[in-house]
Amino acid sequence: MEGHNFEQLKAHILPLSQSNNFNIARTEWDLVGVEISDEIDNCPCGQVIKEHCYIRNRLTGSGTFVGNVCINRFMQIDTGNLFDGLKRIASDDTANANHDLIEYAFRKGYLFGENEYNFLKQTVLKRKLSLAQIKWKQKINRRIINKTIVRRRSELL
After folding, report:
1. What values do phi and psi take at 41, rounded to 5?
2. What is the pLDDT of residue 2?
3. How far is C-alpha 140 from the chain's CA centre?
4. What is the rounded distance in angstroms from the CA atom of residue 84 to the CA atom of residue 104?
5. 15 contacts 57 by C-beta, under 8 angstroms
6. Neighbour-count burial of 74, counting CB atoms closer than 10 A to its CB (0-12 exposed, 13-18 middle, 19+ buried)
7. 3-state secondary structure string across 133-146
């Protein structure tokens, strides 16, 4: 993969991990957040990125970020279509979030409980919504884009 330096990524991840073996160390990490930035940054592998995947090591408590390709290919944490969904609603706040984004938003606490979760799931493929449904969807999408938490962590567990 051009621009993706696996050894450079490994050198970044291993000191933040408990294990010195990358194949074991990568299993210590969890995805804790994603972001599409307007500014260009560099993944620890050296690749230029705008899609940041924030990860936390559940054994050491260390945190860092990697790019979308590295999270999937090297860390083997699947972000699925999460970034596609984020891009879609960021460019059009009336657009439908995809299933991966809905699940992510629910886990992160960006949705007011089951009602909003079920609403998004039921309308994910619908093209014609009432004005009230469109307004509700815009309100939810803006919350997701702005990473606004509306439920306490204890409610999420």
Report:
1. -135, 180
2. 55
3. 16
4. 13
5. no
6. buried
7. HHHHHHHHHHHHHC
- Closest Cα to residue 90, out of 147, 133, 49, 128? 147
Residue 115 has pLDDT above 60, yes or no: yes
How far apart are alpha carbons 20 and 14 in whole angstroms?
6
Domain parsing of the chain, residue ranges: 6-73, 82-156
**Model confidence pLDDT, tens digit, residues 7-63:** 999 999 999 999 999 999 999 999 999 999 989 999 999 999 999 999 999 999 999
107, two tokens: 């886990």
Strand order in the sheet with 63-67: 29-42, 48-57, 63-67
Q: Provide the token pair at 29.
A: 């990490």
Token match 């059009």: residue? 92
Q: How far apart are CA 71 and CA 138, in angstroms?
A: 29
Q: Which residues contact 3 (CB under 8 A, 6 or more apart)?
A: 45, 46, 47, 48
pTM confidence score: 0.84
pLDDT by residue (tens digit) across 50-99? 999 999 999 999 999 999 999 998 889 889 799 999 999 999 999 999 99
